[in-house]
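fwd from M.: "can u put these together and see what the complex looks like"

so here's what she sent:
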Amino acid sequence: MKGKPELDALYNLLLGFSVALSPANLFWCFVGVFLGTIVGILPGLGPPATIAMLLPLTFKLDHTTAIIMLAGIYYGAKYGGSTTSILLNVPGESASVVTCLDGYQMARQGRAGAALGIAAISSFIAGTVGVLGLMLVAPPLARFALKFAPPEYFALMALGLAMVVFLAGKSMLKALLALLVGLWFATVGTDLFSAQSRFTFGRFELLDGIDFIVASIGIFAVGEVLANLETRGGTELFKISGRLKSLLPTLEEIKACRFAFVNGSLVGFIIGVLPGAGSTISSFISYGLEKAVSKHPEKFGTGVIEGVAAPEGANNSDTCGSLVPLLTLGIPGSNTTAILLAALILWGFRPGPLLIQDNPTLFWGLVASMYIGNVMLLILNLPLVPLFAQILRVPYYVLYPAILGVSIVGAYSVSSSLFDVWMLGFFGLLGYGMRKLDFPAAPLVLGLVLGDGMERALRQSLMMSQGDLSILVTRPLSVTMLLLTLVIILMPLLRTVKQWRLKTAGEEA
Amino acid sequence: MERSIYSLSAIFFVLAFAAPLSAQSFKPTKPIEGVVHTGPGGGSDILARAIAEMMDKEKLLPQRLQVVNKSGGNSATAMAYLAEKKGETHTIGFFTGVWVTNPLTTLEAKVMINDLTPMVRLVLEPAVVAVKADSPYKNMKDLVEAAKKSPGQLKQSGGSVTGRDNLVRLVIQKATGAKWVYVSFPSGGERIANLLGGHVQLMVIEPQEAGEHIKAGNLRVIAALTEKRLPSFPDVPTLNEQGIDVPVIPQARGVVAPPAVPKEVVQYWEGVFDRFTNTASWKKYLEQNQFEDGYLKGPGLNKFFVGLTEQMREVLKEAGAKVVR
């Protein structure tokens, strides 16, 4: 095993493929990604619950086979998650919320097939890049992740929050107001540092805070259905093209997504490695980055294909990133990796810094299976695209009740609680009201997803520095991200100044 | 026709009497609901699923034990759910220390552990104090002295402020007069990442979790938070051995039932767990996870709950936490 490191990687990968290509492992890899796709499509039911349910089955399997299958569920779900986001405006997974913004608009313009297609292609590319990263740079990257302490997380969350600049519609003021409401909703629940409850109105159901997926299904899907109820009569909402050709993205569209592929792959993977971040944040940041570098940023939110490609890529390479601390250090960064860790312990492994060294077939078999699994997912998902796109042919009087039904089942299945269904109703009405008053929904959701982590990171930082705020700006990583945040916030301001100067210059001439 | 009605009523007659007869020796007739307060992947969830799996393997239950996640409210949701199932014979819950502390500090968490029916205590999770391998602190004395010299400079990563890791800090601070900061992180992954990254200096950790990092040379263990030294760390002295005279704060896990469950049901489960805790699978599981066998049932368990509630109330009050019950 000693030799040139490149040769080692090659040798190990060959070892991995010899494991992953055995008929049993191929079969269970397929079972995993197939189940994952289904779980991704069903809103509410996520990979952690599915993996937990299937855990008893894995005791009868070989351990490598079992981890191949369970990981397949994890990354497979990210493929399926975009489906309901695009078709029904119902986010299938929390990481697919951003996909609603442009994906659903594309569907309304009759481009559902293209949106679903690009989601699958982008997922495939980012998933593969992610596996490459997992294979080549896992240990150094895990050490990099350890440099992230609360001040760095605060700066990262601030950077994420600055993305509101890119999510604002016509009015920045309305976007900021929506963001503030989102941040307020994020404070509901038990405060980690004092064990006191905030804004729970005496309801124990609120002690854990407002569930992000319930809120976003309410605001996006239920709000959309309510708003559309007003347009009575037979107005056709979705343009459906009969030709199969338009059901998939065109070559130009795929070319337009070149940067989105790179962006999604890298942003997703790097943020995925950080144990305290989460895939929803990576999808927001990659969406913001995509809009920032775009030649036509004003079109985002109206059905731009890059707006689907970037977040869908990010939430896929994120899964590979989150396997890095799990497999190299035994540190789980998400619910799903926590249960994978538990599975490893139950099977008799000792996850930790020595896992890869002690169990090369497990690690390399998994890595190789992920290359294969991503190909399987692409082959599995592309033919489904035309099929799924047909759903929108259903008349609206059937489609809307169906969306409501899917939303209610989704909200209920998050934690099998009827209270969440009432919350869904509340957020549905809120989403409807926001549409009527022309408030953008995305900033609220952004505030809700980041608020908790950002407050926590700030308070943790201040505890560490005994109340000294300079801890945020005296650490190189954190100050870099904070400066970047400042640039992003100032960008729209600079643009206004530039326009004003152009205007006055024009008047003078 | 009339005859069939007679025979039917005869059957009902028999059934009506058979029911109380069979109640004397209760046996589950439908799948059993095992309520846990964490989501999939949480500590209780993992233990419950492992137990369900072993029960199945050892064929100790005539019906399946199905794990149901009632997460939320730091255990309040699961406890409220069990309280609602008053008298229900096919539901059990997997408790842990937070079921005792949470109602003490949270107004909304109205159900207390002694409102439920105690069944068995299964494990005591031992814990150790870990520092980074390159840390200057070789034992508790070094740590306490450093903390005394510059109060508030040392940091400990952990979970909720009502969790065991913080309570341990509070009792040590009180006994020694040292002061250091407790930084809460919601996920176990972040806690250990901050220790490994050198952003905090110590952590209360389970031996199983620490084991691999010690082997890899990342961490060092400086004290065992148990009555006796741990078999896996024979060279690591307990707090008492190091001259810090504090009570051991146990992290217990086990099983409770809804309120007002018939005695036969409790007896049935005690019988099942008597057999279960003697199986090879369970013993192997304890060893793998480096848990202490904490098997306790009946009046002993009742006494344990009462004592623990009192101890927790005292520790929390002294720490300045708002105790509401």
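replying to her w this: Chain B touches chain A through 64 residues (CB under 8 Å).
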